[in-house]
Amino acid sequence: MMFSQLTDSLESTLKNLRGQGTLTEENVADSLREVRRAFLEADVSFNVTRDFVKAVKEKAMGKEVLTSVTPGQQIVKIIHDELVQVMGGETKELALAGKPPVGIMMVGLQGSGKTTFAAKISLYLRSKRKKKPLLVAADVYRPAAIKQLQVLGKSIGIPVYDEGEGNPVEIIQHGYEYAEKNGFDVVIYDTAGRLQIDEKLMQELEKARDAVHPEEILFVADAMIGQEAVNVAQTFFERLNFTGVCLSKMDGDARGGAALSIKKITGVPICFIGVGEKPNEIDLFHPDRMASRILG
Ligand code: GDP
Fold it and tell me: Record-annotated residues binding GTP (predicted)?
């Protein structure tokens, strides 16, 4: 369903209201039902949808029905603006303000897209922010992750520090020292994920974080896993207090509701979206574009 279709259906549920008094609970009820349906279809979590609909209802109630636009357009605008606001309003760029080498630690479940994002972000920072990044291969549990990062690094000309399948906390520590000695100003750590959240993994990530104090901890979520991404995000947030979110696989047919839910539940902004497998297939996250995508 395209954005215009939701607009059309809202307009038809509200078509008799033009120029008549104010929006009331009764006459917006049908539109809110449409919004709820569109959100759940877009994989926004149930609780987040409920709170959102409530907020929109409060904003719409008592608004005068304008003569210049249809009531449908009016409520679509209220919804759109609220969505943009909940998703953070503006695009968040990584600050990278600390003493170099500034650390960026990638965390998330196995298969979420961490290794790919590590390479994408290194390329992005080199070409758009004129940085000199080092990649550190510390995903020692997933077969082939180290090799994958080396291949990606080579393809974009960004050096990769690795020690094979050693102790990940030590690799991260050594990677930091290597970056410091060799004049890299950003160091991006690819860490291990599991298929499910796992206590040992969390403790290891905490240890790695405490060893190198990365400026940013970026949680990577696969947009295709929808609502489940929210539970995973919540657990990672409780343990690691990540500072940004990367949403992979937005080139698929995911509507992106996970973006809204993760932002709403953790308060942490989404920084990047992945739009393909190649290192240059990365975009900054734009709340207004995502709002249109979620509304469908
Ligand atoms: P990791 O286990 O978290 O390191 O995940 P990977 O980076 O290996 O990604 C898992 C799979 O998803 C790989 O086959 C990637 O090529 C693919 N992938 C990652 N990001 C994207 C994306 O934005 N779009 C698409 N289509 N595929 C992606």
Answer: 108-115, 190-194, 248-251
